[in-house]
Amino acid sequence: MKVTNGELAEKGSKEEIINHFCDVKKTNDCPITDVLARISDKWTMHTLIILGKSDKLRFTELKNQVEGISQRMLTVTLRTLEEDGFVTRTIFPQIPPKVEYELTTLGRSLVVELISLSNWANDNMKAVLEARERYILKQN
């Protein structure tokens, strides 16, 4: 199905839309590829969305809300999010040490887009599952 000019007009001019996409043959300098590679692993989106629902969370609170994540994976995920500027980490010098994580302005803006993607997925999941089923039947 081709995207119509009307659908493109809602997002901007056709040229503006096309210019936002990268040459699919050149992935090295592609912002879309770079950002998606960083956030599309098993844990990152879940972590971002949970942080988006809260003002600030301590490590243990966050770990308890990201079902199934190990301490090591949460640490790696949070470090990557901090490196990319999506999360800030605040250390309070006390005993025991207290560390809080919260989304930055950049992180909050990403979560807004993830909510749009989530809404699209919820609205279209039935059609996706039906398409998968048709595909499997066609293969047999």
Automatic annotation (TrEMBL):
InterPro entries found in the cross-reference section: HTH_HxlR, WH-like_DNA-bd_sf, WH_DNA-bd_sf
The entry's keywords: DNA-binding, Transcription, Transcription regulation
Superkingdom of origin: Bacteria
Domain called HTH hxlR-type: residue spans: 30-129
GO molecular function terms attached to this record: DNA binding
UniProt-listed PANTHER family: TRANSCRIPTIONAL REGULATOR, MARR FAMILY (PTHR33204), TRANSCRIPTIONAL REGULATORY PROTEIN (PTHR33204:SF39)
Record protein name field: Transcriptional regulator, HxlR family
